[in-house]
Amino acid sequence: MRLFAQFTCIAATAMFLVGHVTAWLAGKWGTAKLIDTGSLLHLGSCVVAGVVWWSVFKRTRSGRTLQVLDAVLFAGSMTAIVGIYACGYADGMPTMGGILALFLLVRALILPSTVRRTLLYSFPAPLAFLAVQLSNGVAYAWPGQVVPDEYGVFVFVWNQIILWMAVVMAAFASHLNYTLRVKAYEAKQLDQYVIEDKLGEGGMGEVYRARHALMRRPTAVKVLRPDVTGSRAIARFEKEVRQTSRLTHPNTIRIYDYGRTPEGDFYYAMELLDGADLEKLVEATGPLPASRAIHVLGQICAALHEAHEAGLVHRDVKPSNVLLCVRGLEYDVVKVMDFGLVKDTASGEETLTRADEICGSPQTISPEVLTGEEATRRSDLYALGAVGCYLLTGRPPFEGRTVVELAAAHLNKEPIAPSAHVEGVPSALDAVLLACLAKDPAQRPATALDVRELLVAIDDGEPWGQADARGWWDEHRGRVTESGDTQGAV
User: Fold this and answer.
1) Could you tell me which of 89, 7, 86 has the C-alpha nearest to residue 43?
2) DSSP one-letter code for 162
3) What is the H or E stretch that residue 277 is in?
4) Cα 222 from Cα 237, distance rounded (Å)
5) Whether the Cβ atoms of residue 336 and residue 303 lie closer than 8 Å to each other
6) Can you give the pLDDT at residue 41?
7) Alpha-carbon distance 458 to 145, whole Å?
């Protein structure tokens, strides 16, 4: 953007000065000509380009701001060129179509832009010229001058040919430029990780499928760019890496590496998982049988217990933050991820959450957090109970048309046992989940390990085993992986 604005400003200013000085020396223009409409339009385009150049000079701007500046610069320049042409501002008016065509091509070559955006900008250019030519009459396609009819037709057609060719060439150049620059940027900004494709994106960042350039190990790389969000989010993102790296349980996502690129983007590399998050899995294949839900919930408890013992409260346990995947010959392996809202209760580290900020997801947030109390390990167990209800019934324990209604339900309504919605849920499993969903934290199980022991003690006939899991994945893998990215929540 800086280079494009610089080129436009210098080129427009040079043309203004050279044209006026040359005309003045030749005695063609007097002082009054300097303040006519055409001159003012030209001078205005120089000022607009200069302001945009100054706005991005040695400054980092967000992507949205750059798009606005791009639109302002393009609109100002095109308005000036077409306006000058309409005013009969200088000799050689047929060249104005070529100047506008050159401007379209320069933008496509310098500024990485999608084809759609380039066409949106370029398409009005030949139409604007066509409107000016028709308003002046074909015989006066060279504004301000009387020329033979046949020459006017030539200029009319020539400008249209040049401009429509420029539109097509600009779109093609944008496709090449944008695609190659994005690939080069991703390869450069992720250092030793080669990007293969994008898995997903969310409020905290983007996740790419990648591989280490030397070890060739398949990896998922999560990136947060400073222009996406503010410094608090970046600090929270770094904290997520530090906190997650302390955890070693097999049911917690593994972190391989992290760092910053020369552009200032923070990233970390984690294990690439073959599977889907619980939300996508239930949406694609329906609720889980009780035996499988017990198997999944037990693994979540194990991951949470390690985090709680390390003084970490997840604060955002929900179906989309738990992945169910295949690891080698092991099926239905749980991975708890996305520790972006984690709270460290042991280290005394300064919190990144404001006092008036409520952290969590509406479907799984605990009543005490809604009322402004500090989240504890029992808050995570409340969310665990909500996840269990979702796995068994395909719906959260509480529903509402708005976030306010949902919050009121968490505070005031008693949860309904999953067995009331579906058949085959043991009463003991109902009891465990309802205990986790107790309004009063003191009435919930004390630890995630306690919940796991209660789940293990449930007698539900044949427990869910590897043979069951393997058969399920053989049958449903295609539907699950097609329903969303294989790395789950971001």
Assistant:
1) 89
2) H
3) strand 274-277
4) 10
5) yes
6) 81
7) 94
Among the candidates 247, 271, 295, a domain finishes at 271
Tokens, residue 117: 């955006």
The H or E element containing residue 267 is: strand 266-271
Choose from 120-129, 156-165, 404-413 the range with maximum mean pLDDT.
Answer: 404-413
Same structural domain for residues 334 and 472? yes
Residues whose CB is less than 8 angstroms from the CB of residue 356 and which lie 6 or more positions away in sequence, other chains included:
none
What confidence tier does 352 reach under pLDDT thresholds 50, 70, 90?
very low
Average pLDDT estimate for 121-150: 65
DSSP single-letter state for residue 216: -
CA 148, CA 145: separation in Å to the nearest integer?
Answer: 10
CA 179 distance to own-chain centroid? 17
Distance CA 466, CA 327 (A): 12
The CA-based angle 101-106-111, given to 5 degrees, is: 135
The answer to whether the beta carbons of residues 345 and 353 sit under 8 Å apart is no
Question: In Å, how far are 5, 52, 84 from 57, measured between CA atoms?
Answer: 10, 9, 28
Q: Given a cut of 80, is residue 154 above it in pLDDT?
A: no
pLDDT band at 176 (very low <50, low <70, confident <90, very high): confident
| Total number of domains in the chain | 3
Structure tokens at 452: 């796991």
CA of residue 393 relative to chain centroid, distance: 31
Q: Which of 148, 149, 12, 3 is nearest to 78 (CA)?
A: 12
| C-alpha distances in Å from residue 162, one per residue of 11, 84, 100, 122, 138 | 20, 18, 9, 12, 17
Are 347 and 446 part of one and the same domain? yes
Q: Using CA atoms, how far apart are residues 143 and 52, in angstroms rounded to an integer?
A: 30
**Total count of residues recorded for the chain:** 490
Q: Which residues contact 47 (CB under 8 A, 6 or more apart)?
A: none
Name the residue type at position 168. V
Kindly state the tokens that stand for 64.
Answer: 């949205």
Considering only CA atoms, which of 412, 406, 305, 312 is closest in space to residue 364?
406
Q: What count of other Cβ atoms lies within 10 Å of the Cβ of residue 229?
A: 16
**Domain that includes residue 55, residue range:** 2-174
The pLDDT score that the predictor gives to residue 487 is 55
The reply to whether 207 and 309 lie within a common domain is no
Look up residue 360 and give its amino acid.
G
Do residues 283 and 414 share a domain?
Answer: yes
What is d(CA 313, CA 299) in angstroms, rounded to the nearest whole number? 17
Place 92 in a pLDDT band, splitting at 50, 70 and 90: very low
Q: Is the model's pLDDT at 175 over the cut of 60?
A: yes
Read off the tokens for 139.
Answer: 């015989």
**If you average pLDDT over each of 100-104, 149-153, 357-361, 459-463, which comes out highest?**
100-104
Question: Which residues are part of the catalytic machinery?
Answer: 316
